[in-house]
Amino acid sequence: MTGSVIDLNADLGEGFGRWTLTDDEALLSVVTSANVACGFHAGDPATMRRVCALAAERGVRIGAQVSYRDLAGFGRRAMDVPPDELADEVAYQIGALQVFARAAGSRVSYVKPHGALYNRVVADSEQAEAVVAGVLRAGAVCDGPLPVLGLPGSKLLAVAEGVGLPAVTEAFADRAYTWAGTLVPRRDADAVVHDPETVIARAVGMARDGLVTAIGGEPVAVDARSLCVHGDTPGATQLAWRVRGALASAGIRVEAFT
Questions:
Q1: Phi, psi of 224 (to 5 degrees)
Q2: Is it true that domain 5-254 has CATH number 3.90.1300.10?
Q3: At the N or C end, where does the chain have fewer CB atoms within 10 A?
Q4: Which Gene Ontology BP terms does the record give (predicted)?
């Protein structure tokens, strides 16, 4: 639903051991929902615990960002995982994050796939069904059905709706779009929008007008309840603040969708 209210989310906890990628503490002062890496593409127990504690302290909703098991490739490499195995791995990641969310006095509030898995379940029904099966398996430890965050028109959201899970549409302020409303693949040089002014203008346009300019220059309709600003880009926190300020100036209230 595009309109006067939108959620602002970012991918957080994307470190491992002594290596850090995102400025989690700073971004948690801006966003309303945190997609927390669950250890398969990034993240480790200590990072997950720390991010959950900070999110709970600031009233930010905690989401499980589930991925293919691909630490070396940051979850961005295409993989063929049998559906039952993928469902188990999705449930495992959600359950692991729920431990730390509960310890912080909060809970896992939604699920969002990451990287190659996110793109795969746009059109692959079998993999989408596996992700949803994993979300359902984790429901027993998550106080019932979890909303699923994904691309409008994706197989993932269709499957989620088909089994009664809340399906939440998402748009990306800093990613390039194709004419079909899908994301330009990361392997392409122009997949990420780097100019801050362009990112801000796109964010407002998607939230207020339901439109974004595709890579070929044509307007594309987007219907999003949540807007993502990636946390692993240079200057991500400052950009997120500017996006939030621009949304407020356009009369759009930023609040969590859960």
A1: -130, 135
A2: no
A3: N
A4: carbohydrate metabolic process
